Amino acid sequence: MALVDQLDIVIPTIRNLDFLEQWRPFFQPYHLIIVQDGDPTKTIKVPPGFDYELFNRNDIERIVGDKAWCISYKDSACRCFGFLVSKKRYIYTIDDDCFVAKDPSNEDINALEQHIKNLLSPATPYIFNTLYDPYREGADFVRGYPFSLREGVPTAISHGLWLNIPDYDAPTQMVKPLERNTRYVDAVLTIPKGTLYPMCGMNMAFDRALIGPAMYFGLMGEGQPIGRYDDMWAGWCSKDLAWPGWCSKVICDHLGLGVKTGLPYIYHSKASNPFTNLRKEYKGIFWQEEIIPFFQQTQLSKDSTSVTACYLELAEKVRAGLGHIDPYFAKLADGMVAWIETWQALNPDYEK
Ligand SMILES: O=c1ccn([C@@H]2O[C@H](COP(=O)(O)OP(=O)(O)O[C@H]3O[C@@H](CO)[C@H](O)[C@H]3O)[C@@H](O)[C@H]2O)c(=O)[nH]1
Ligand SMILES: [Mn+2]
């Protein structure tokens, strides 16, 4: 169950990595891929005893070469570089201000163990099971659930949640500065086919073999008109390949893969500055009103049968369907293509 030789932990960072001390009992057996963002001459200290590789911007330029521009700088979107260079089947990605949460019996939550359970059990995107994940111990399919669908589909993404500081956008954070999430909901749900969701990269795991190339976190941060929509982009695209959240959901729906959300929780300790965040997010806040309907109506062709083919098709749809909003979207479409070319160059056996 522990998948020690099959899972890498990817951490984007601009801080120090003291948070790893708390995770030591759970993370020490795994290989860590640390993506150091910002100034490459800065020294990032990793607590002793961890097996890790650390990549800074110079390493990204060296490894990705003339397509390194497709990896964002000064935004947590840089984490997708770690997905590119991993050689493992599964990825868990976590932010450096996330700590071990407690369950209602005050026990430490082993987030990784729950993500692995979510990924290794099927998902049910076609019909909603009212007792939530039917594959969890103590649950099953309810009366009326078609027997023909009870085998489910492979789970590609496990999206975990956050106690303490929730993943709010800047305006919500500004009007509710004191809000803390203390509500522990003991549930794992499959997100239904055709439904997009705001994917957060703070505490999520995915099956790289099933959906890896769709986990591009877009062009964000320095030199770009927006930031902090990295994980949303990936999630939207994955629907049949949504923005990692948007892109990957679009692609999961198209390829018959599942996305689960709910357990496990981590404890998110720090809110980033809402005023700085507002400056980074503000175009995304009104663009998303057009982007989401675009992804909702996006249909990929039957000829796109692999994740890379879906993603390249989606890149052209982004160019044609979102280019009128801002020239940024043509550049983003170029970034999506450059990402896939880089993925293929660094992972020559993928999809073979
Ligand atoms: O320029 C940057 C900024 C941050 N990082 C690293 O990315 C993660 C998340 O950063 P942070 O904790 O500051 O931001 P939050 O607002 O709490 O996080 C949410 O925003 C998302 C979108 O950007 C992110 O995925 C969410 O979880 C930390 O590890 C920072 O060190 C960076 O690499 N470069
Ligand atoms: Mn944070």
Automatic annotation (TrEMBL):
<keyword id="KW-0325">Glycoprotein</keyword>
<dbReference type="InterPro" id="IPR004901">
    <property type="entry name" value="RGP"/>
</dbReference>
<dbReference type="GO" id="GO:0005829">
    <property type="term" value="C:cytosol"/>
</dbReference>
<feature type="glycosylation site" description="N-linked (Glc...) arginine">
    <location>
        <position position="143"/>
    </location>
</feature>
<feature type="site" description="Required for activity">
    <location>
        <position position="150"/>
    </location>
</feature>
<dbReference type="Pfam" id="PF03214">
    <property type="entry name" value="RGP"/>
</dbReference>
<dbReference type="InterPro" id="IPR029044">
    <property type="entry name" value="Nucleotide-diphossugar_trans"/>
</dbReference>
<feature type="site" description="Required for activity">
    <location>
        <position position="143"/>
    </location>
</feature>
<dbReference type="InterPro" id="IPR037595">
    <property type="entry name" value="RGP_fam"/>
</dbReference>
<dbReference type="GO" id="GO:0071555">
    <property type="term" value="P:cell wall organization"/>
</dbReference>
<dbReference type="GO" id="GO:0052691">
    <property type="term" value="F:UDP-arabinopyranose mutase activity"/>
</dbReference>
<comment type="similarity">
    <text>Belongs to the RGP family.</text>
</comment>
<protein>
    <recommendedName>
        <fullName>UDP-arabinopyranose mutase</fullName>
        <ecNumber>5.4.99.30</ecNumber>
    </recommendedName>
</protein>
<dbReference type="GO" id="GO:0071669">
    <property type="term" value="P:plant-type cell wall organization or biogenesis"/>
</dbReference>
<dbReference type="GO" id="GO:0033356">
    <property type="term" value="P:UDP-L-arabinose metabolic process"/>
</dbReference>
<keyword id="KW-0413">Isomerase</keyword>
<comment type="function">
    <text>Probable UDP-L-arabinose mutase involved in the biosynthesis of cell wall non-cellulosic polysaccharides.</text>
</comment>
<dbReference type="GO" id="GO:0005794">
    <property type="term" value="C:Golgi apparatus"/>
</dbReference>
<keyword id="KW-0961">Cell wall biogenesis/degradation</keyword>
<keyword id="KW-0333">Golgi apparatus</keyword>
